[in-house]
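Take our chain:
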Amino acid sequence: MPIGAQFVHTLEEALHLRRIQAGIDLLSSEGHEIEALTPETPDGGRLLLLIAQWIDAGFSDYRLLQPLVERFPADQRRQLNVRDYLSVRMAGAFVDLMRGELYRAIEGLESALRTCQDLEDRGNEALAHFWLGRAHRKKGEYEIALQHIVRAQELASENDRYFAAVVQIQKSWLLFQKGLTRDAEQMLNCAESVLSSTDHYVALANIESARGRIVRRAGEYSKALEHFARAVEIYAKRDPNHVNLARSLVNAAYVRRLVALQLRKQIDTQAYSGRNPNTAGNRSWRSREVPLLEYQKIWQKAVDDLTKAREIYWLRAHFDGIGKVSLSLSYLHLDRGDIEQAAGEAEEAYRIGREQQDQILMARARILESAIENAHVEEQTGEGVDVAVHANRAKQYSEEAIALAHNTQNLRLLAGAWIARGTTAANEFYQDWETARQCASEATALIGPGESDHLVEDLTSLKTKIVRASGINDILRSWSEGIIGNKTFQQIVEEFAEIVIPKVWLREHKKISRVAAVLSISPKKVRRILRNTGSLR
């Protein structure tokens, strides 16, 4: 079919009905014609925006579109009619979005959105809102992202039920970020019910990926891995090298690391109990050998997933994805005690985040670098002066992480940064227990109910270290003398509850209802405090 009005119409109809393979086959058959697209091509601007939407649905990647957009320089765009100009502007903004140039993408889409509204072009207005929502989400600006996504869904629902379902997937994640887990899950189910009759594998796999991240936060790691495995399988039906497939591999590797850490704790516990002289040595070794081999297997699988993900990201020139791979690899190396290799990967992640102006990636890298510097302090590597250098770097990195996280609306990221700062305050060099307590209090206020993943475990570990070092009696004595630091009364009440409620819970045979009755408080508050202290999992 020659490039022209009929070609464009056929492509638009296939997209509207989400007949993805049919559309991709049509685009592939006219590849040479598309590569020759110029401003003189009939319906050229309209086709350019349509190609952008097809790339979003799983065809090729943004590098096909970028040189085509560049053939429409500013002086030639001014000669186009308004609708073609709008299409070219939106296609260029989509390229910026895919390249991670979010500020340029937002600027272009906001300009295009105003034109859409002037023209009462509801279809492109919905698309502009959709891409704007994704751009703001990537920046960690969740409130404005949700506003755009909600508007996109409203507009799409008028005449494009399939696109509205695709928008719902984005909306579900933003609702999840606000702690509305049940609403998010229901929205994913609704989207799946609409899209299940199509071959829109990218969107269907996105649903599985989102489910994996939801259950991961609840600490259901095995279930999360099942969802990520299904996501990888579905993505591969469209493209075995799709960037979203790489993202699922990174997510799976992240979960495998958490599973491996749990297993290592069991190994360490067995090793400690094996010191009992009454324990048979051979039997003790065999009981540890099997989980140790399993730990190594899980660790290696995580590395393999990340290696594959990095290959795909390089192939697709997806640099923020490469940064996330470096971040995950750094954690894996740190877990094994390879501090130098961990530091190299973390530095690379921060570099990429800075180049991409990705505040979230930069903050995560600084949190990790703080942990690496604290590992140096813990292991007392180098001379005494080196320990001070490492401790000061840990403090600097954690404070930078807090500042970066404050530039986003990612509350868990900010909680992680406060935990990093508190862990640094509690290291062997500083032993600043008052600062550690304040940081733990800040982090506690940011973690939502029902969360039971590594972040909660890290916070619990910090609180345990604080209590062991400073002692409950010392804390109570300070309060009785009016020494409260910079805490508010509510923060003191919360800390007191975290001391008392777990003790009462143990005395009442771990019955939440009995604790609530004894202390005349709600069972919901008892559960929250027990989760915050790590008593309830």
The first helix runs from residue 5 to 16. The CA atoms of residues 388 and 429 lie 7 Å apart.
